[in-house]
Amino acid sequence: MSDGTGKPKTTTSRRRFLGAGLALGGAAIAGKAHAGEGEAAILEKKDWNQYLGDGVDARPYGHPSEFEKSVVRRNVAWLTADPVSSVNFTPLHDLDGIITPNGLCFERHHAGIAEVDPAQHRLMINGLVDKQMVFTMADIMRFPRENRVYFLECAANSGMEWRGAQLNGCQFTHGMIHNVMYTGVPLKLLLEEAGVKTNAKWIMPEGADASAMTRSVPLQKAMEDCLVAFKMNGEALRPEQGYPLRLVVPGWEGNMWVKWLRRLEVGDEPWHHREETSKYTDLLENGKARRFTWEMDAKSVITNPSPQAPLLHKKGQTVITGIAWSGRGTIDRVDVSIDGGRNWMPARLDGPSLDKSMHRFYVDFDWDGSPLLLQSRAMDSTGYVQPTKDQLRAERGTNSIYHNNGIQTWHVKANGEVENVEVS
Amino acid sequence: MSDGTGKPKTTTSRRRFLGAGLALGGAAIAGKAHAGEGEAAILEKKDWNQYLGDGVDARPYGHPSEFEKSVVRRNVAWLTADPVSSVNFTPLHDLDGIITPNGLCFERHHAGIAEVDPAQHRLMINGLVDKQMVFTMADIMRFPRENRVYFLECAANSGMEWRGAQLNGCQFTHGMIHNVMYTGVPLKLLLEEAGVKTNAKWIMPEGADASAMTRSVPLQKAMEDCLVAFKMNGEALRPEQGYPLRLVVPGWEGNMWVKWLRRLEVGDEPWHHREETSKYTDLLENGKARRFTWEMDAKSVITNPSPQAPLLHKKGQTVITGIAWSGRGTIDRVDVSIDGGRNWMPARLDGPSLDKSMHRFYVDFDWDGSPLLLQSRAMDSTGYVQPTKDQLRAERGTNSIYHNNGIQTWHVKANGEVENVEVS
How confident is the model at residue B424 (pLDDT cuts 50, 70, 90)? Predict the structure, then answer.
C-alpha cells in the first residue's frame, strides 16, 4: 500500500479491480452473496420485471426503501437522565458524500422537540438597539437571503472518548455532526434594521422551547457570517432543528446555533448564562477552566470501515472513506494510516470544498487481509493539523467533555470486524 | 427599480428594509398577521415555553413539521392514462437553495416504483466486452467513488406549455427537475473492468422494473462523466429514484438516467428502441424529426412569486427568486424583467456554482404594488442565452413535447395573485 514515500499506490489500472465482479462463464466468484449462482439463477430473482409498482399518487412525500430501515439516528439510553434532554446520533457509517439528509441529522434538545406554529412565531430584537423590533416569519422572508453549506458539530462530540475508547461505532463517537445547505437572512441585516447602538458588543440569541436556550455571541461574529435560517437542504427546517427559525453560527459549537429562535438581545458584555459557564467550559488539570471555546478545531474520522460497517469481503480492493471538517476554513489535506500512525498516506478529497463545510475523503486500497489500525488526520486551510488524543490530554488533562478532536483509531481484524481502540 | 442602464437598485441601506418588521412602541405595523398585537399578546402565544416536546427516542428517521404538510409532490390526473406511468412534480415554489430534499424529488415511472432488494440486485455488463461481468452491490461498493451535484430534468419538462400558457404553477410547468448530490462509481471504471472492445461505440443501460427502460448512450459520454450511483444527498437512492442503482448522465435528459439499473450492453450502433424513436424525438413543422437531443439547454424559472406562491404583503421590500441550469456547464448570469421582457436587470446568483447543477438567483426588489410581468433569462458558461417561447416555435413549430426551455412569464396582479401568461 505504501512505498515508503507516504504516497499510496492508487493506480486505476484495469488489473487492480479484477475480482471485484463475477466474470460470466469463468470460475472466478467474488463475494459470498452470489457464490454458486449462474446467470439463469440471477435473472430469475429479478421479480420486478413482472410487476407494476406504486404509481405517482402513492407518495406525496417520499421515504427510504424498506431495505434501508436500519439507517436511522440512534440514542444512547445511559448517556442522559431523560430523552427530552439528550442526543440522537447521525448514522455516519451509512452515509456518503457531504450532504446529511434532513431525516438523519443528529438532534440534541434540552426540553424536547418544540412544534412551533410559524404563523404564531415571532423574532424579537431588543436591548442596545435604536428601536426594538418584532418580526413575523413573513417579515423575515422579505430580507435578502443566502445559501451556505455548513457543518454543525456539538462541542461534546467524541466527549465520551476523553478517557479512552468507549463507544463502538462512529455513529456514537462522532455522530453529533451534520452538514446541510442553509437558506437564511444574514443576521447583520436584521441587526441593522433595529439599529445597533455604538456601545453594543454582544448578542444573546434565545430559543422558544421550554429550555429557553441562551448563549452569548460576540457582535463581531454576528455581523460577519451568522444567518437566521429557515430552510435546510431546500425545504423548511425540521422541528428537531428549530423549525421555523434557527441561528446559524458557522464553524462554532452547535449549542450556540439556537433553535426555535425567538429573541436576540443586544448587550455590551456577555451574559454568563448556564450554558456557557457550568456547561460548555473545559475544566483543566490545574483547576482553571477554558471558556468561550467557540471555534470547532479541525477533525476527521473514518466512517467506513468502522465498528458498525465491517469489511465483509475479507481482502482485495477496498474503499476506505471518511469525513473531515474545520471551523476555521476548508480542509486542505487528509492523511490516512493503516498502521496506527506510524506511516501516513494522503487521501483523495472528493466533492465541493466549501468553507466550514464537511469534506469527504477516500483511500482506494488493496487490502491483503491482515489486521489494520486505521487512523485519519486532517489539516485545514490555516495549516492546523489534527492532534492525537494523547496530545490533547497532555494539554488539557482528562476532565474535559468538550472539544475532543483527537485522532480516532479503528482496529480492523483479519475477519473484517472493526473495534474502537486507542494506540499510544 | 431600473435606472435605464439595466442595473437594478440593490442597495442594502438600512432605510430600504424599514417597515419589514414591527417597531415596538411605535405606530408602524407591517403585515396583517400581527396587526393590533402588543408585546404581551405575542409572548402569550409562545406555548412551547411551557411544554416538553418529544424526546430523542421519538424519531429515528425524521419528517417535516405538521405545519408543512402542503409541501408535497403533486401529479396531474388528466396528464396520463394511469399513475403507474406518470409524473409527480417537485414543489419548486416551496423550496430554496439548490439542493432538492429526497422526499420531494420529482418522479417519473413507466411501470410504477420497483422495490428492489439490494441483496438480490445485480448489474450485468455484456455485449462488445472482453468478458461479460455481473456485479453485486457489494462488488460495486469496492470501486473508487465520486460525489457530484447534478440536476436531472425530464425532456418533457414544460412540454405542456408548447402551445401556450396552460398550467398554473411552477410546480407543474417546471417541476420535472431535481438537484441532488450523487455518490457513485464512474461508469468508465466498470466498463474498463469488463474491457470494452475497440469497435464499441454505444452502451445501452436497462432498468430492472417492468418497463425495462432502455436508451442508447454514446460510449464517449459513458467514459466521460457518467456515474453508476447508489446514494443521493448522502443516503441510499430512494425507490422512486431507482434504488439501489441508477445511471447518472450529467446534463442530459432524465429519461436516459436509467433507474433500477441492471444491465449495460456495449454495442457498435444505437438500438433505436421505443424511448428514443416514438418518444423523445421532436416532430418539426416540416415533418422531419429531431432525434438524440440529449443535452438539456440552459433554462430558468422564477419560483417565487408564482401562481402557488402569491405576494401576500402587497407592496414594499420583496424577494424575487428562482432557479437556472444548463446541461452544458454552469450558469454565468440570470437577468430578470418585471415588464414582460422590455427591460432586464441582472439577478444575484447565490450558493455554490457547480457544473451541470441547479443555480439559485435572487432579485431584492422594492415593489410599488403595481402589476408585474415577471420573466427570467439564463445565460450559461458557453454564452448560450435562454430563448423566448416564440423563438423556439419559429425554429421547431408547435408539435413538440420535449426540450421547451423558453422564457416563462408570470403575471403578478395588484392584489398579489400570480397567473401563468404569455407575452409576445
Answer: confident
- Residue boundaries of the structural domains of chain A: 94-290, 299-421
* The CATH homologous superfamily of the domain defined by A94-290: Oxidoreductase, molybdopterin-binding domain (3.90.420.10)
A103 touches chain B (CB under 8 A): yes
d(Cα B127, Cα A204) in Å, to the nearest integer?
A: 66
Superfamily of domain B92-290: Oxidoreductase, molybdopterin-binding domain (3.90.420.10)
For A44, residues 6+ apart whose C-beta sits below 8 A from its C-beta are none
Among all chains, which residue has been given the C-alpha cell 451574559? A271
At B284-328, the pLDDT tens digits run 989 899 889 999 999 999 999 999 999 998 899 999 999 999 999
The arrangement of secondary structure in A299-421, i.e. its CATH architecture, is Sandwich (2.60)
Are residues A56 and B73, on separate chains, in Cβ contact within 8 Å? yes
Q: How far is A285 from chain B (nearest CA, A)?
A: 33
Residue pLDDT, tens place only, A66-84:
999 999 999 999 989 999 9
DSSP class of residue B408? P
Q: Can you give the pLDDT at residue B6?
A: 35
User: DSSP letter string over A300-361?
Assistant: EEEEESBTTB--TT-SEEEEEEEEEE-TTS-EEEEEEESBTTSS-EEPEEES---TTS-EEE
For residue B82, the chain A residues in CB contact (below 8 A) are 55
pLDDT below 50 — which residues of chain A?
A: 1-19, 25-45
B92-290 and B299-421, same CATH topology: no
| Chain A interface mutation, best of B32, B48, B151, B231, highest count of A Cβ atoms under 10 Å | B48
| Tally: H helices and E strands in chain A | 7, 24
pLDDT attached to residue B22: 57
Q: What is the ipTM of this complex?
A: 0.90
* Cα–Cα dist A60/B253, whole Å: 23
Per-residue b or e along A205-217, where b marks 16 or more CB atoms closer than 10 Å to that residue's CB: bbbbbbbbbbbbb
Residue of B nearest to A135 (CA): B21
Q: Which residues of B touch A316 (CB under 8 A)?
A: 142
Cβ pair A18:B244 closer than 8 A? no
- Classify the C-alpha dihedral B339-B345-B349-B350 as positive or negative: negative
Test the B interface: residue of A14, A39, A65, A149 with most B CBs within 10 Å: A65
Q: Are B378 and B386 in contact (CB under 8 A)?
A: yes
User: Are B319 and A141 a contacting pair at CB < 8 A?
Assistant: yes
